[in-house]
Amino acid sequence: MDEAEAGFPAYRAARCTSVAELDGAVTGCRACPRLVAWREEVAVVRRAAFRDEEYWARPVPGFGPADAPLAVVGLAPAAHGGNRTGRMFTGDDAGDFLFAALYAAGLASQPTATGRGDGLELYGVRITAPVHCAPPENRPTPAERDTCRPWLAAELALLAPGLRAVVVLGAFGWQALWPVLAAAGWRLPRPRPAFRHGGLVTLPGGDGRGPLHVLGCYHPSRRNTFTGRLTAPMLTEVLERGARLARGAG
């Protein structure tokens, strides 16, 4: 691996002074050879339903306002979802489930998301992930997760002055988030809390930032939603709770 490419996230992310600058920088990352090869291969082979579309095939930046008090953290873009559309959780079943719940919670302008030009707006919430490239079988390696970590750490640090709550979708995101929060300046509990749906951990504030409420939620994957492990009311309830905490309403 080229050393300059491998070190790009750590070098570049820390130097971004705005969320917009960070979003632009992350799209040029080529630090993980396996992920670069996969995202670009998928864009060439394509799925039959999308054979006439031009895939994004780059790292997918976060989506939502730069002053959002609530963040939603997933896992990684889907090969034919975010990797195709260029927007987090857009263009796949998990995204359809999530955006419908965001709309029901009053956090989105519409219940559907099809692409970057669909007019969708988020209200007070920003969606991001610990890994910004689509991984094979939706499974990034620990090394890929760690290489990508500076992007999310920088994003949360830039959001920190107004960030009050984070909803974490799934155990992978939950485990990946704690070292990211530490890197972004929050003090973590010991031992680190185990993931559970509806679980709440509150990190103390300090250094010009308020406390941060971290909520666990099952990931809206096909497996979870088709089996009923995660229902639309369950997801909406967690998002509504996150929004209340973000507003200081408890």
Automatic annotation (TrEMBL):
CDD domains: UDG-F5_TTUDGB_like. The keyword Iron applies. Gene3D superfamilies: Uracil-DNA glycosylase-like domain (3.40.470.10). Residues 61-239 form the Uracil-DNA glycosylase-like domain. It comes from the Bacteria. The keyword Transcription regulation does not apply. Keywords: 4Fe-4S, DNA damage, DNA repair, Hydrolase, Iron, Iron-sulfur, Metal-binding. Pfam families: UDG (PF03167). Belongs to the uracil-DNA glycosylase (UDG) superfamily. Type 5 (UDGb) family. This is Type-5 uracil-DNA glycosylase. It comes from Streptomyces catenulae.
